[in-house]
C-alpha cells in the first residue's frame, strides 16, 4: 500500500517536470542534461558575439525558423526617421540587420510595423505555445511562461550553442508553487502581485527554482497580466516563472500568425491541456499569498524586494533583523535620497515612465489612461508613455489613448525598451526621481544617479498628475 502511494506520488508531475522530460535529449555522465529548444528569441544586444562565433566556426544556424528577432534596447523612441545619433547603438542595429539577413532570420527591424520589445512582440504573433522550451539572451524571457512554456534567459555563449545545435545544456531546477488566492482589490494589478511576491520571497528566494504561479488571483488575470507576473520571476531570483495554460491562453493564441491551424490546432489543444500539473504533484517549496492583502505597491530602494504598499512608509534600517538587509536598507536610502519613515505618498517625483516588457502592453496603457484622463502632468514633472510595440501603439491610438496622454501633457513615444534601462538615450539626470512601470530599480538603471520607484501603470499615471505617489486604492 505504502509502495503504491509512493509510486503514485512519483508518477504525478508538475507542469515544469512534464515539459522538462519531453525536451530531454541526452546526458553524458558528469555533464549537464541537454534540452531541446523550440523557440529562440533575439535582440541586438546579446546576439552579435554569438553570430561571430558561428561564423568563425563555419557553422550554419541549425533551424532559422525557430528564431524571431527584433531591435529594441538601442532604438530611439523619437525622431525615428533621422539617423541614429549614438554610434554604438547605430552599430548594434546595423549588425543585427546584417546577421539576420545573412542567416535568413525573421527580423522585426526598426521600420517594421511589427517592431517592439522582444517580450511584447513575440506573444503578439503567437510565436510561443504551451509546452515549449523558449530561450533568449535576455533575463526577462520568463515573460513567456505565461503561456505555460518553460522560458528563460541565457548568456551569449549559450545563444551561440542554441543557434548551432538547437539544444542547451541545462541543470534541472527545483519547483516552487506561488499560490495567490482570493481577489485583488480595486486598482490593484498584476504588477502589484509581482512586486508583493518579491517582497515576500526576496530577490534570492527563487534561486534554483522554477516558479509556477497559481490560485484564483492568477487564474483571474488576463494573458497580459500573467505576462507581467512571469516577467518578474527573474527578479525573485527564479530560473523561470510559468502559469498553467487554460481557455484564456487558447483564446489568446487562436488565429495568431504562428499558432497551429485546423487539425493541428485541435491536436495542439489536446496536448496543451495535458501539461497542467497533476493533482497531488509535489513542489519543493510552496508560498501562499492572499490577493486581498495586496495594496498598490511601490519600491523605496534599489532592489525590487525593497517594496512596500503605497499606504506605508520608508522603513528604518533597524526594522530589519537580518544584518545584510539592514545594511542594504541603509545604502539604498542614501542612494535614493530618502529619510526613513517618510510616508510613500509624501515622496515627490520628477519623471514618469510607462512602458517596458513588464507593463508596455495595451492593457497597461488602458489602465494608465483611465487614471490620466482629464488630469494634467504636475509642474516640474516629465512623463513619457512608451508603447511596448507598434501594435500596442496603433491599438492605443485607435482607442484614443494617445490623445488622453497628450492632452494631459505626456509625451507619446515610439516603441522600445527606452527608459527601462536607458540604453537608447532616454535617461534620468543625476538625482532625478522616477515612477516607473519597469522591473528593475538598481542604482543607475535609468541613468547615472537616477532614482527609480517601481509601480503599476495606474500608480504611475496617478503620480504624474499629483507630482508624488498617491494611494489609488482610496480613489473611487
Ligand atoms: C540587455 C539584456 C541582456 C538585459 C537582460 O538580460 O535583461 C536587459 O534586457 C535588462 O532588462 O537588463
Ligand atoms: S524592456 Fe527593459 S527589462 Fe524588458 S527587455 Fe527591454 S531592457 Fe530588458
TrEMBL record:
UniProt pathway annotation: Amino-acid biosynthesis; L-leucine biosynthesis; L-leucine from 3-methyl-2-oxobutanoate: step 2/4
Cofactors demanded by this protein: [4Fe-4S] cluster
Enzyme type, top EC level: lyase
Coiled-coil region(s): none
UniProt: [4Fe-4S] cluster binding residues: 357, 417, 420
Reactions it catalyzes: (2R,3S)-3-isopropylmalate = (2S)-2-isopropylmalate
Transmembrane segments: none
Example of a GO biological process term: L-leucine biosynthetic process
Domain annotation Aconitase/3-isopropylmalate dehydratase large subunit alpha/beta/alpha: ranges: 17-467
Record keyword Metal-binding present: yes
Pfam families for the chain: Aconitase
Cofactor binding summary note: Binds 1 [4Fe-4S] cluster per subunit.
E.C. code: 4.2.1.33
Family that this chain belongs to: Belongs to the aconitase/IPM isomerase family. LeuC type 1 subfamily.
Free-text function comment from the UniProt entry: Catalyzes the isomerization between 2-isopropylmalate and 3-isopropylmalate, via the formation of 2-isopropylmaleate.
Name recorded for this polypeptide: 3-isopropylmalate dehydratase large subunit
Species whose genome carries this gene: Cycloclasticus zancles 78-ME
Gene of this entry: leuC
Amino acid at each position: 500500500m505504502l509502495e503504491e502511494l509512493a509510486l503514485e506520488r512519483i508518477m504525478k508531475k508538475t507542469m515544469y517536470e512534464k515539459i522538462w522530460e519531453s525536451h530531454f535529449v541526452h546526458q553524458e555522465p558528469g555533464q549537464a542534461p541537454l534540452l531541446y529548444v523550440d523557440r529562440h528569441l533575439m535582440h541586438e544586444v546579446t546576439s552579435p558575439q554569438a553570430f561571430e562565433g558561428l561564423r568563425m566556426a563555419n557553422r550554419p544556424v541549425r533551424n532559422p525558423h525557430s528564431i524571431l528577432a527584433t531591435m529594441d534596447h538601442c532604438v530611439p523612441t523619437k525622431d525615428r526617421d533621422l539617423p541614429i545619433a549614438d554610434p554604438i547603438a547605430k552599430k548594434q542595429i546595423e549588425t543585427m540587420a546584417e546577421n539576420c539577413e545573412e542567416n535568413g532570420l525573421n527580423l522585426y527591424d526598426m521600420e517594421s510595423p511589427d517592431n517592439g520589445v522582444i517580450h511584447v512582440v513575440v506573444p503578439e504573433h503567437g510565436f510561443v505555445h504551451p509546452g515549449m522550451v523558449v530561450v533568449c539572451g535576455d533575463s526577462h524571457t520568463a515573460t513567456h511562461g505565461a503561456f505555460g512554456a518553460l522560458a528563460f534567459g541565457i548568456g551569449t555563449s549559450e545563444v551561440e550553442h542554441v543557434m548551432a545545435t538547437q539544444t542547451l545544456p541545462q541543470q534541472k531546477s527545483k519547483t516552487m508553487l506561488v499560490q495567490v488566492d482570493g481577489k485583488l482589490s480595486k486598482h490593484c494589478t498584476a504588477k502589484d502581485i509581482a512586486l508583493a511576491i518579491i517582497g515576500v520571497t526576496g530577490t534570492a528566494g527563487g534561486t534554483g527554482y522554477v516558479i509556477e504561479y497559481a490560485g484564483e488571483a492568477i487564474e483571474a488575470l488576463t494573458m497580459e497580466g500573467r505576462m507581467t507576473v512571469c516577467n518578474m520571476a527573474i527578479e525573485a531570483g527564479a530560473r523561470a516563472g510559468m502559469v498553467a495554460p487554460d481557455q484564456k491562453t487558447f483564446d489568446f493564441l487562436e488565429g495568431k500568425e504562428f499558432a497551429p491551424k485546423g487539425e493541428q490546432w485541435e491536436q495542439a489543444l489536446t496536448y496543451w491541456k495535458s501539461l497542467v500539473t497533476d493533482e497531488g504533484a509535489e513542489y519543493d517549496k510552496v508560498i501562499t499569498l492572499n490577493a486581498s492583502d495586496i495594496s498598490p505597491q511601490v519600491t523605496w530602494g534599489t532592489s525590487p524586494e525593497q517594496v512596500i504598499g503605497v499606504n506605508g512608509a520608508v522603513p528604518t534600517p533597524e526594522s530589519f533583523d537580518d544584518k545584510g538587509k539592514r545594511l542594504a536598507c541603509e545604502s539604498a536610502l542614501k542612494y535614493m535620497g530618502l529619510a526613513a519613515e517618510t510616508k510613500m505618498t509624501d515622496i515627490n517625483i520628477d519623471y514618469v515612465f510607462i512602458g517596458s516588457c513588464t507593463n508596455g502592453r495595451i492593457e497597461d496603457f488602458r489602465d494608465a489612461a483611465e487614471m490620466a484622463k482629464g488630469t494634467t502632468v504636475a509642474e516640474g514633472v516629465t512623463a513619457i508613455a512608451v508603447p511596448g510595440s507598434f501594435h500596442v501603439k496603433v491599438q492605443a491610438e485607435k482607442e484614443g489613448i494617445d490623445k488622453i496622454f497628450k492632452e494631459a501633457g505626456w509625451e507619446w513615444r515610439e516603441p522600445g525598451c527606452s527608459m527601462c534601462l536607458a540604453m537608447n538615450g532616454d535617461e534620468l539626470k543625476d538625482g532625478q526621481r522616477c515612477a516607473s512601470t519597469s522591473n528593475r530599480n538598481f542604482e543607475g538603471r535609468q541613468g547615472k544617479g537616477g532614482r527609480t520607484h517601481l509601480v503599476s501603470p495606474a500608480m504611475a499615471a496617478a503620480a504624474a498628475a499629483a507630482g508624488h505617489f498617491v494611494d489609488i486604492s482610496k480613489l473611487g
